[in-house]
Design goal:
Layout lengths: L4 H13 L10 H8 L2 H12 L2 H14 L14 H17 L4 H39 L2 H41 L5 H12 L4
Helix pairs in contact: 1-3, 1-5, 1-7, 3-4, 3-5, 4-5, 4-6, 5-6, 5-7, 6-7, 6-8
């Protein structure tokens, strides 16, 4: 299954909209606590990729793993947004190529762990805008405060959330297909991934 550039861009935009600091859907209110739930992203990705049923099935399975994930003060053991958009997309592609849903769960969980690198880098980068915003306050520069508090941070979100998601989803689709071809569904690797994916909700 291939993902078109347009589909990858749409998924990237959704990843930005559902990010913790994304302003499009009021950050945590409509973005993080709604769009970044794998259950919701599964439906949206299913619509984009043309297979709503598989999207929802993969999204529900991944949601179970992250059901109790809490991110107080931005502390994040796993990046739910990465799991919801990169993980679910690659999971849907894998299932369409013959993998099990449990394997898709294992893939999404691994993506969530790696995604924390992007999240932490984004938090560090946003501190640059924070310092500029404080300097604007001291000068009484309201335009500078607005730009550095809202616009600058959204540039960071787009560059570190939407762009990587779109690129990974676009190029990752063919990689996922090749991996599934290399490791048939009855191979030890795929059975191990399925077993791991089945255990993860209990962990």
């Amino acid at each position: 299954m291939e993902v078109s550039i347009f589909q990858a861009i749409l998924i990237g935009i959704l990843a930005y909209a559902g990010s913790l600091s994304g302003a499009l859907f009021l950050g945590t209110l409509g973005g993080w606590y709604v769009l970044s739930r794998p259950l919701v992203s599964g439906l949206l990705i299913g619509l984009i990729l043309g297979d709503i049923t598989t999207g929802i099935l993969v999204g529900v399975a991944i949601q179970v793993v992250f059901i109790a994930l809490v991110t107080p003060g931005g502390a994040m053991p796993q990046d739910l947004n990465a799991a919801a958009y990169i993980g679910v997309t690659l999971g849907v592609i894998s299932v369409k190529s013959g993998a099990t849903i449990e394997s898709a769960v294992a893939i999404a969980t691994a993506v969530g762990v790696v995604g924390t690198i992007f999240h932490n880098f984004m938090m560090i980068t946003n501190s640059f805008w924070n310092h500029r915003a404080l300097a604007s306050v001291e000068k009484g520069d309201t335009k500078g405060l607005f730009f550095n508090s809202l616009i600058g941070t959204q540039i960071t979100q787009i560059l570190l959330r939407a762009v990587p998601t779109a690129i990974i989803v676009y190029f990752g689709a063919s990689v996922a297909d090749k991996i599934i071809t290399m490791f048939p569904i009855d191979s030890f690797t795929m059975r191990a991934l399925s077993a791991l994916g089945g255990l993860l909700p209990a962990v």
